[in-house]
Design brief:
Helix 5 runs parallel beside helix 6. Strands 1, 2, 3, 4, 5 and 6 form a 6-stranded parallel beta sheet that branches. It is built from 7 helices and 6 strands; from the N terminus they run E-H-E-H-H-E-H-E-H-E-E-H-H. The protein has a single domain, classed as 3-Layer(aba) Sandwich (Rossmann fold). It is α/β, with parallel strands linked by helices. 40% of the residues are buried. The mean pLDDT is 90. Strand 4, helix 5 and strand 5 form a beta-alpha-beta unit. The radius of gyration is 16 Å and the shape is globular.
Length: 206
C-alpha cells in the first residue's frame, strides 16, 4: 500500500493546528554561570508576567513551545533538565517553578543561540501551521534576538512582548528590544495589552 507523501498528524499532541505559537526561550535554566545572578534579578519579575501570558495562550488554544539550550550536552533530555532546575539547589530553581510546562506543551532543545539552528522547530511550526510567533524568555540580547531574527527570515509575523523578556541589564534589554522593533518590525506590545484572539483571527499573509 502506498504511503502518503506527507503526514499532517502530530499523533495525539495538541493543539495540532495553531496559527499562533508562544515560544519560551531558555526559561528552564539553572543559571549556574557567570552573570547568572544579574539575569535572575531581571528574570523573576518577568517570569510572573510570562506565566500569566502562557496561561492565557493555553486557554485560547495557542501552542506553547519551550525552546531550551542543551548546555553542550548532546544526550540532554528536557525532562531531566526540568527536574534538575526544579529540584537541585541552583540559581534558576524559582524561575523553573514559576514557568513549569503543562502536559500539552511542546519542547525543543537547541545547541546554539537561535531556536531554529539545528533543531526541530521548523518542522514543528510547519505541522502546526504557525504564522504568528510570540517570542519570549532569556536573554533579550542573545537567544531571543537570534530566534526572532530567524523567525523574521521565515516571513513569520513576530511578536516580542517587551515585558516578557529579560537580559543581564536593563540597558542590554532596551538596546535589543529597539533592534527587534526597528530592524525586524516586531510587535513589542506588553503582554497585558496583547489581544491573542486578534492574532488567531488574522488571515495568513501572502
Amino acid at each position: 500500500m502506498a504511503m502518503p507523501a506527507k503526514n499532517h498528524d502530530l499523533h495525539g499532541n495538541v493543539p495540532e493546528n495553531s496559527p499562533v505559537a508562544l515560544v519560551m526561550v531558555d526559561v528552564i535554566n539553572d543559571l549556574e554561570f557567570d552573570g547568572g545572578d544579574a539575569i535572575l534579578r531581571n528574570a523573576l519579575p518577568m517570569a510572573k508576567r510570562l506565566a500569566s501570558l502562557a496561561r492565557r495562550a493555553r486557554d485560547a488554544g495557542i501552542a506553547v513551545i519551550y525552546v531550551n539550550d542543551n548546555f553542550g550536552k548532546w544526550r540532554s533530555d528536557f525532562r531531566a533538565l526540568l527536574d534538575h532546575c526544579r529540584n537541585d539547589n541552583v540559581r534558576g530553581r524559582e524561575l523553573a517553578a514559576i514557568l513549569s510546562p503543562e502536559r500539552s506543551d511542546y519542547f525543543v532543545l537547541k545547541p546554539k543561540h537561535s531556536g531554529f539552528f539545528s533543531t526541530t522547530l521548523d518542522t514543528l511550526i510547519e505541522y502546526l501551521h504557525v504564522r504568528t510567533m510570540i517570542i519570549t524568555g532569556l536573554t533579550t540580547d542573545r537567544c531571543v534576538l537570534f530566534t526572532a531574527s530567524d523567525a523574521h527570515m521565515r516571513d513569520l509575523h513576530i511578536v516580542v512582548p517587551e515585558d516578557c523578556c529579560a537580559a543581564d541589564s536593563e540597558e542590554h534589554h532596551r538596546d535589543a528590544m529597539h533592534m527587534i522593533q526597528r530592524v525586524l518590525g516586531a510587535d513589542v506590545t506588553t503582554s497585558e495589552k496583547l489581544d491573542l484572539t486578534r492574532f488567531l483571527e488574522e488571515p495568513a499573509r501572502e
